[in-house]
Amino acid sequence: DLDTARHELEEFIPHVKNISDGSIKKMAGRDLMRFKEFKRQGIAVKFGRFTQKENKQIRKNVEEFLSLTGIDSAEKLLFTSRYPEDKDTIYRLKMEHHFCEKISEGIPRPWRLIYYRARKMFDPNNYKGRYTEEEKEKLKKYQALHGNDWKKISELMSRSNLSVAMKYSEIKSAINYGPWTKEETQKLMSAVKEIMKRKVETENPSSLSSLEQSNTDLWIEREKLNQPLPWTEIETRVGSRYWRQCKQKWNSILASKLVRERQLYSGTKGLKAKINLIKRLYESKAEDASEVNWDDLSNAVGDVPRAYVQAKFYRLKVSSVPLWKRKTFSEIIDYLYENKLPELEEKL
């Protein structure tokens, strides 16, 4: 029953209403029982970037399946269509030995995402180095013939889908090699913010409300700064730069922010920032952390993302407020204002 399956999956995948009926049927067969078992063990279903532990588990699962079936390479297992003479045998072995269940064992994610991750990890065409001039000409010819059918083109080029798509994007763009204008930089930052917001909405809709309140350009928390982004989409939104330039510019923006944060919280500036932070929190009269406008606060304390200011507040209360876990938010602020603030001002 499609409606029942969709309803049951909604507990684990909040954005399930946007998934096609065909995908729901596959997930009901491949994922639902796994998700329920993970729930029983107290493990939440995950999305986003794969961890090293998960990558290691995927390698283990693939190696064990190869050993079980006698298939002699991961490429044959995961890219069976490249081996037409063996494909019937490989498909039969995959069915007999429950490939879907085996490949996803121990990983609390949708099967499809695990499968795509395995294909990326074990595709030898992912790591072939720079394109030659001959390859670039072939790529342009194949794209003219087949459009953006990157799967077809990747087979013809013996390169991965992602590789040929991004290289063609680089070749076709009207490249501007000059300094970035303010307008280009703003387009880049707006594109990244919108995409990150979309990812958070998909992976954790409950956290979206806090993002909606953000007025800063770089609201992204430190642990999210360097996660992979769809650079070809960002390139399209910027319009005047190809994807690699966009990526390099974004990384330089992050580096600049991190340097400013380190400068802000060191030496005399550090003392002033802590004093300013405590005063602003006290003046806010907030009874709970959720009532604090962290974006306004981060602008007042210094040009840094809100997460940095929140981290500094956390360190202040942990290092300065005795038994802070037993105190309310307002009691912690009062203690910092009455006891820590005079000490910092004297030190300054």
From TrEMBL:
Transmembrane segments: none annotated. SMART domains: SANT. GO terms for cellular component: nucleolus. GO terms for molecular function: chromatin binding. GO terms for biological process: termination of RNA polymerase I transcription. InterPro entries: Homeodomain-like_sf, Myb_dom, SANT/Myb, TTF1-like. Residues 123-160 form the HTH myb-type domain. Residues 123-171, 172-254 form the Myb-like domain. This is TTF1 factor. It comes from Anthoscopus minutus (Southern penduline-tit). The lineage of its organism: Eukaryota, Metazoa, Chordata, Craniata, Vertebrata.
